[in-house]
Amino acid sequence: MPKRDRLYLFDTTLRDGAQTQGVDFSAADKRRIAEVLDDLGIDYVEGGYPGANDTDTEFFAEPPAFKSATFTAFGMTKRAGRSTANDPGFLAVVKSSAPAVCLVAKAWDYHVRVALGITNEENVTGVRESVEAIAAAGKEPMIDCEHFFDGYKANPAYALEVAKTAYEAGARWVVLCDTNGGTLPHEIERIVGEVVGHVPGSHLGIHTHNDTEQAVANSLAAIRAGCRQVQGTLNGLGERCGNANLTSLIPSLLLKPDLAKAFQIGVSKEKLKRLTAASRLLDEMLNRAPARQAPYVGESAFATKAGIHASAILKEPETYEHVPPESVGNQRRVLVSNQAGKSNIISELERLGIKVPKGDERIGQLLEEVKQREALGYAYEGADASFELLARRLLGEVPEFFTVDSFRVIVEKRHNAVGKFITVSEASVRVLIDGEDEPLWSVAEGNGPVNALDTALRKDLGRYQDLIRDVELVDYKVRILTGGTEAVTRVLVESRDKASGLRWFTVGVSPNIVDASFEALTDAVTWKLLHDGARSSRKSPVARRGRS
Fold first, then answer.
1. pTM
2. Which of 117, 200, 260, 373 stands the most exposed, by the fewest C-beta atoms within 10 Å?
3. Contact 305/339 with Cβ under 8 angstroms?
């Protein structure tokens, strides 16, 4: 077997990823993410810019204890007109706890002239002296050549001079940056191929942005042309459209035969099985829903709802899936929808742990029930919990923990105690608990009618209350399925158990948006009670189709 080239993974989630709109990592967040990246097998973890803000300063004051990754600080080359010993910003990076430093440098002569206001020679001098100072401090120096590809197109000789100066001064890595994300793969491959003639590929890195949806492709093109370090972020975080997505790059490098034969990376196939969990942990920390169609790790990455494909996938998955879902810690999903066949139903029942013989006539009944309900507006692709309840009800496995005798919602516009004109939503819910004669009546206010209903429903469920104490509504989506005065509304609700972190999705349909919402909310509570092993003497009937 031919020798494979070592390819180094550089993660900048904690620095470049932190520039994502709406992302604001705390020092504790950075430590948790850094731990996950190290555990995954990333070679370099860039922690931020020490001294630039309180969070990064705190993070570098207590650096993570990595098992294998190299902790890296980000900074800028020294300012023109100052020595490396007389530049406070530069010194903060040199004196940081990180054993490696990545400095950003201008590689486009236009930016040198306009943004920095200095000569080309002064910029090159700053690059050389900065790299030498980092090396003299006993740290591993790297240079990010900002806007390298734009600079190379405008003035190849100067862009190359910057890169060569950094390498000759002792930079371990000279990183070529597609900073505005506008370069295309064929351009990347051509330019990197030319740079390799001046700076060895074993010292070249690539850092691409995703503004044309080319960041992963551009990274692979650069690797093909000679780069042996690749930078990116978990889930493709980053300013504007993000960075090269390491969550896509890593499995491609490990699982695609041509790449796997040519390159060796620090992530093993065993560690790769943690990739989906790492991706979703980051989303959880950012309090955002994971991208369902994300390659490799998305909930839909290995999902199908076509009946013919579903049957074939179950028989020969390797011919329909480009990699095994288990290899990245994901799972196959054969969706239940109006396009489904019995294979979809059987697969989904198996995934949910519901054992039904393949020849059982109830499978056909469930399939017909799903199709009839989807004709009314229900959708079970994104509502696993409601589908599970539907299936178990048909099989007689869902206790009737409680029944709703009535509910009411009032929305009122009024002046509060300080005279401000506000909108108040108040809901009341009357429920009968299995085995008890007296109904429970709960009243609650909320931020809107659905929040008020959710709070009232979960306020007092008698002996079941402890099981739902940590349940909360985390997302709520409404879709109007038909227009006019008789419009049908579908509501998708996402619930979470704060103690365990478990999430589940339920659906409701009705011409009345509040009624549809309440159906989804009651399903959410019922599913939680079922999975926590709550007991009841009565079984629920099959859910009614739609509401009037």
1. 0.71
2. 117
3. yes
